[in-house]
Design a protein that fits this description.
disordered N terminus
Length: about 180
């Protein structure tokens, strides 16, 4: 006797409906979450325009938590929220915390996005800034070099974004040399 004959058809119908309902609920939840994250991002922008860094950071932390709860710790949406929040930590002179979130976002981007895309270059750049703020000049130069390679390939050497990275690397090399000379 087959398994299908042992399971009542009504049970299969109920199981199918439950599965469809949970898939639909998840789809609705993600749509709601996307709207809520957009609203939180709008709050970040509004708070930033007012110079309310703490308000922006609170909204960014909420967006991160919502993304993590909705899509999981290793989702691209969560990585985007981490990157936004980490940028605000950098602005708040909390570079060590920013560094940790940038590193986690990079790992997600490598796995789930284009590791040679401009989005990756942006996160590398952001991490480079966090390193520089902590006077980790070697680390900053190394990660910024990755951003430079990507931006050079995708945007060209004359792009303002590429030039910005090149200039920052140059300044950090000077600082690193000054630090070495003092020792």
């Amino acid at each position: 006797m087959s398994l299908f004959r042992k399971v009542p058809v009504v049970f299969l119908g109920v199981l199918f409906c439950l599965l469809m309902q949970s898939a639909t609920s998840f789809a609705k939840d993600t749509k709601v979450a996307k709207k809520e994250i957009k609203a939180l991002n709008d709050k970040i922008m509004a708070a930033n325009e007012k110079g309310d860094l703490q308000g922006a950071l609170t909204a960014a932390e909420g967006a991160y938590q919502l993304a993590k709860d909705t899509w999981g710790e290793n989702a691209l949406e969560t990585a985007n929220a981490m990157n936004n929040m980490a940028n605000l930590y950098t602005a708040a002179n909390e570079a060590p915390a920013a560094e940790q979130f940038f590193k986690r976002a990079i790992l997600i981007y490598i796995e789930k996005s284009d590791p040679n895309g401009t989005g990756m270059a942006d996160i590398y750049f952001n991490l480079g800034v966090a390193y520089a703020m902590q006077k980790k000049y070697s680390d900053a130069i190394n990660i910024l070099s990755k951003a430079e390679v990507i931006r050079h390939a995708k945007l060209g050497p004359e792009s303002p974004d590429t030039q910005k990275v090149v200039e920052m690397i140059g300044e950090l090399r000077k600082l690193a040399n000054m630090k070495t000379e003092r020792i």
